[in-house]
C-alpha cells in the first residue's frame, strides 16, 4: 500500500516539478545554473516522499571554483533524485537528443542549457564535442557525465567510454569523480524508511599537459579510484 501511495505521489511530483522547471527555463533560458535549480526541484521533494536518507561528503565538489568535468556512476532513474541533491553551481550535463521529447522533463532539460547528443550521427557528435570544449574553457561552466554510458545497478561499474576524458583533456580542465554507494537493488519503497545512500566526491584529477595518448591510463586510474570508493562505502553501509 505504501509503495502504491509513494508511486502515485512521485508521479504527481514529476509533473509538478517539470512545470516548475519549465517556468525557470522560460524565465531565463539556457542559464548554466538552471540545471542545479531544476535538480533541486526534482530531488528535495522526492527524497521526502520516499523517506530516503543521503549521507554526503561532497565538499570538494561543492567548493571547486573552476570549470571541470564531473564523472559519476549511473545506477537507475532514481539518480535524478539522488544525485540531484549534490549538483554544484553552473553545471550542465550531457543527454541523449531523444530526451528533448519527454513531456515537461525534456523541454526543461533543453532550456536548462544541457547539451543534447545524437549518438547515431557522427557529425552531430563532433559538433557537440566542440560545444563542450567551448563551455568548459570559456563559460565558467562544468559538465556532468556518466562515463559508463548507461545505467547499471550492480556494485561493479561498467567499462568507461572515452568522451568525458577527451572533453577534459581538450579543455585542459580537471576531472572530479562523484561516487554513489550501490543502492538500486536495495531500496525498500514499501517500508517507511526506504534506505540510506552515501555520496562522496574525490579529489580533482588534473589533465593539464595530457594528450589523447594518455586517455586509456586516465580512464583506468579514474575508474579504479571510483570503484575503490564505492566498495568502501558499500562496506560501511553493510556494517551499519
TrEMBL record:
CDD domains: LPLAT_AGPAT-like (cd07989). Its EC number is 2.3.1.51. GO terms for molecular function: 1-acylglycerol-3-phosphate O-acyltransferase activity. Residues 68-183 form the Phospholipid/glycerol acyltransferase domain. Pathway: Lipid metabolism; Phospholipid metabolism; CDP-diacylglycerol biosynthesis; CDP-diacylglycerol from sn-glycerol 3-phosphate: step 2/3. Keywords: Acyltransferase, Lipid biosynthesis, Lipid metabolism, Phospholipid biosynthesis, Phospholipid metabolism, Transferase. GO terms for biological process: CDP-diacylglycerol biosynthetic process; phosphatidic acid biosynthetic process. It comes from the Bacteria. It holds the Pfam family Acyltransferase. It catalyses: a 1-acyl-sn-glycero-3-phosphate + an acyl-CoA = a 1,2-diacyl-sn-glycero-3-phosphate + CoA. GO terms for cellular component: membrane. Belongs to the 1-acyl-sn-glycerol-3-phosphate acyltransferase family. NCBIfam families: AGP_acyltrn. PANTHER family: 1-ACYL-SN-GLYCEROL-3-PHOSPHATE ACYLTRANSFERASE. The HXXXXD motif is essential for acyltransferase activity and may constitute the binding site for the phosphate moiety of the glycerol-3-phosphate. This is 1-acyl-sn-glycerol-3-phosphate acyltransferase. It comes from Pseudomonas segetis.
